[in-house]
Design a protein that fits this description.
Chains A, B: Pfam families: FA_synthesis. Chains A, B: Belongs to the PlsX family. Chains A, B: It is found in: Cytoplasm. Two copies of one chain form a homodimer. By secondary structure, chain A is an alpha/beta fold. Chain A has two domains: 183 residues, 3-Layer(aba) Sandwich (Rossmann fold), CATH 3.40.50; 130 residues, Isopropylmalate Dehydrogenase, CATH 3.40.718.10. Chain A contains 14 helices and eleven strands. In chain A, strands 3-2-1-4-11-10-5-6-9-7-8 form an eleven-stranded mixed β-sheet, sandwiched between helices. The N and C termini of chain A lie far apart (53 Å). At the A-B interface, helix 9, helix 10, helix 11 and helix 12 of A face helix 9, helix 10, helix 11 and helix 12 of B.
Chain lengths: 351, 351
C-alpha cells in the first residue's frame, strides 16, 4: 500500500485544485491512500464532492497555512509543527506516509523539508530534480534551484541521486548520466564540473552509465537520461526552456490567426495541434522532486490546475512504488564503500 | 564609408557560404567596402560570380586557414600574423577596417582577437553578446560563453557594454538592463549578481535604465533590452533555448504529417507556417559580437548558410555605422570618473 501525505493548502488555488487533482490521480491508481492536511472549513465540502477520494483519505485539520509569498524563515518560525505544509512532511518522517506532495512555495517547502527530514548520511545539500520532456521521451535534470553553486563532490552526489530516480521512474537498469557544461571536450568548462567528471569516470558505479559532458541543446534532444548541474545554471536552463516554449506557442497562435486560409488550415489540422499542445503541456511533467533528504517530497507547480496536480501525485506514486529512497541509500553506501577501499589501497601502495 | 574585414575561410563551408553571403548583405548596404582574407585558389572564381562584390572588395591571399577543430593555442601558434583569421582581425587593429567578421571557430577567434586587439582600458575580460529573438522584438544577451564565471565588477562592465550595443543596434537612448538570476527578489541568488545589482543601482548611469533581476523565462518575453550574466549560465541559456526551439519544430513537423487532414491543413496554412519558420529561424539573428576589445569582431555561426552569414555582416554594418566602440569607451570613462569622485567623496566624509 502506498500512502501519500498532501498539503492541500499549497499553491495559488489551494484545495480548489489539489482536491480534484487527487481525485484524478486516484482514478489512475485506485490503491493509493491519502493523508490530507489543511483548513477544515475550506476542504470538507470539496472532499465530499469526490466520494472515492473521501473513502481513501484521512483528513487532518491545521490552523496555519504557509502563504505563497512567505519567506522561508517566516514560514519556519510560524508554521513549524502546526502548518499543513509541515505536518504533511512530518507524516513522511514518522513513517505514516511514503511520500509528500505540496504545491506550496518552494523556498518554504525546501526549508521545512530540510529541517524536518534532514539530509541523508554523506549528503551535504539536497537538490530539486525536474522531469524534462525530450525528443526521446523524458529526462531528469537536477539541480534546478535548491542551492546555488556545487562542488565536484556535490555534483557527484547529484549524479547518483538522479540515476537512482531515473531507475525508479523510467525503470531502466543503468541510466546514462551527463554533466552540463559549455562544450563537450574534456578541457573546457568549470573546474568543479571537470573534477566531477573525473570522479564519475573513475568510480564506475553499477547504477549508472557516465556519458561525459553535455550542452544546453542536449536537454531537449534527450541525449542522456539524467543531466546534472548546479542550481543556478539548472534553474536558468529550466526557465529558459519554459519561456522559449511559451514564446513559440505565442508565435504559432499569431501565425494561425492571421489569414482565413491559415484559420481554415488550423481547423483541419486541429487534432494535430491538440497533439502538439499536449506534447508541450508543462502540466504533463509537473513536479519537482526533492532529493537527498530522508524522505521524498514532491513540489507541484504553484500555478497549475487539477490535471497538473494529478501529474505531481502520479510522480509521487511512481517514486514510492519503486522505493526511490532505498535505491539512493544503497548507491551512496556502495560509492562510499568504494571510496574507502580506494583510499586504503592508495595508502597501502604508498606505504 | 564602412569597411568590413572578412575571414572568408571560417565556418564549416568557408568561401562557399561567406562570399554569396557578402553579396547579399552588399545588396542591402551598397555603401559597404570589404577587405577579404583567404586562399586565392578557393575564392577567385566565387568572387567573380558576384561582380558588385568584386568591385567593392580588396582580396588578400593568406596561406593559412584556421580549422574548425583547431585548439585556440594551436591556432595562435600556427596562424598568428599569417592566417586569414588573424589578418582580418589585424585590419581592425590597423584602422583599415571598422569591424571584422568570421565564421571560424569561437575559441580560436576569441584567442586571436584578445591577442591582437587587447582588452579596453578598465575591462578585464571580453564577453560575447548574442542577439536574442523575443516576443517584443530582440534583446541582447551577454556573456554567452567568452569566459566562465564573472565577479560583480565584470558583470557591471558587461552591463555597460551591452547597453552601449543596444543603443547602437536598436537606436534607443536608455535601454533597460536586467541581471539574470534565480528569483527576482533582492535577497536571492548569487552574491556577485546581488553586488552587481547594488553597483548598477547606485551608479545611475545615463546610458541605461537598470531594471533589476530577471529570470530565464524573461529572455523569451523580452522583459529587458539587455540581459547580463556570466558565460557559463549564458551559454547554457542560449543552447537550451536553441534546443527547445528545435525540439518544438520537430514536434510540429511530426504532428503535421500524421493524418491526411493535418497534411491538408498544413498546405492551407503554409504561408502561416512559413512566417513561423522565419520567426524561429536562427539565421535571422546570426552573429555573436565580441565586446570589451579595442575593436569589434563578429562571430558568425560556423554551420550557417549564405543568408545567415549575410545577417552577421548586417550586424557588423549596424555596429560600425553607429560607432559602438566610441559608445562603450565613453560609458566606461563616465562610470570610472563617477567611481573616482565617489571614492574621493567617501574618503572626505570619512576623514
Amino acid at each position: 500500500m502506498i500512502t501519500i501525505s498532501v498539503d492541500v493548502m499549497g499553491g495559488d488555488f489551494g484545495p480548489e485544485v489539489a482536491i480534484p487533482g487527487l481525485a484524478k490521480s486516484l482514478d489512475r491508481h485506485p490503491e493509493l491512500k491519502f493523508l490530507l492536511y489543511g483548513e477544515e472549513d475550506k476542504c470538507t465540502a470539496l472532499i465530499a464532492e469526490h466520494p472515492k477520494l473521501a473513502a481513501a483519505s484521512t483528513f487532518h485539520h491545521c490552523d496555519i497555512s504557509v502563504r505563497m509569498d512567505d519567506k522561508p524563515s517566516k514560514a519556519l518560525r510560524q508554521g513549524r509543527w502546526r502548518s499543513s505544509m509541515w505536518r504533511s512532511i512530518e507524516a513522511v518522517k514518522n513513517g505514516e506516509a511514503n511520500v509528500c506532495v505540496s504545491a506550496g512555495n518552494t523556498g518554504a517547502l525546501m526549508a521545512m523539508s530540510r529541517f524536518c527530514l534532514r539530509t541523508m548520511a554523506n549528503i551535504e545539500r539536497p537538490a530539486i530534480a525536474a522531469i524534462w520532456p525530450t525528443l526521446r521521451g523524458e529526462s531528469i535534470v537536477l539541480d534546478v534551484g535548491a542551492t546555488v553553486g556545487a562542488d565536484a563532490q556535490q555534483l557527484t552526489d547529484y549524479s547518483m541521486m538522479g540515476a537512482a530516480m531515473a531507475r525508479a521512474l523510467f525503470e531502466i537498469d543503468r541510466p546514462s548520466v551527463g554533466l552540463l557544461n559549455v562544450g563537450v571536450e574534456e578541457v573546457k568548462g568549470l573546474e568543479e564540473v571537470k573534477e566531477a567528471g573525473r570522479i564519475l569516470k573513475a568510480s564506475e558505479l553499477p547504477g549508472m552509465n557516465y556519458h561525459g559532458f553535455v550542452e544546453g541543446d542536449d536537454l531537449g534532444k534527450g541525449t542522456v537520461d539524467v543531466v546534472v548541474t548546479e542550481g543556478f545554471a539548472g534553474n536558468i536552463a529550466l526557465k529558459t526552456a519554459e519561456g522559449t516554449a511559451r514564446q513559440i506557442a505565442e508565435y504559432l497562435r499569431a501565425a494561425m490567426g492571421r489569414t482565413i486560409l491559415a484559420r481554415l488550415g488550423y481547423i483541419l489540422a486541429k487534432s494535430a495541434f491538440d497533439r502538439l499542445r499536449e506534447k508541450m503541456d508543462p502540466r504533463r511533467v509537473n513536479g519537482g522532486v526533492f532529493l537527498g533528504l530522508n524522505g521524498i517530497v514532491i513540489k507541484s507547480h504553484g500555478g497549475t490546475d487539477a490535471d497538473g496536480f494529478a501529474a505531481a501525485v502520479d510522480v509521487a506514486h511512481d517514486m514510492a512504488r519503486n522505493d526511490l529512497i532505498s535505491k539512493i541509500e544503497n548507491d551512496l553506501k556502495l560509492y562510499h564503500a568504494k571510496q574507502t577501499i580506494g583510499s586504503v589501497q592508495a595508502a597501502v601502495s604508498q606505504g
